[in-house]
Design goal:
65 residues, mainly alpha, 4 helices
Amino acid sequence: MAAIFMIGDGLLGLVQTGRHTDLWKDRALGAEYAVRPFVGRPGRRRLYALAQIAAGLALAARQKR
């Protein structure tokens, strides 16, 4: 589940950078603090999205049957 979330969230952050950050800015049960470094910095969010996707793929590759 964690890998799926990381990959999906990363893809949304990569493709819809501004919109995705805006969704988490207000009243997000504490997540607004996590997105604060990305507000107004789409390049930073895209870089984080790529890292998120890579980590999710690595985690998924380690899963055993």
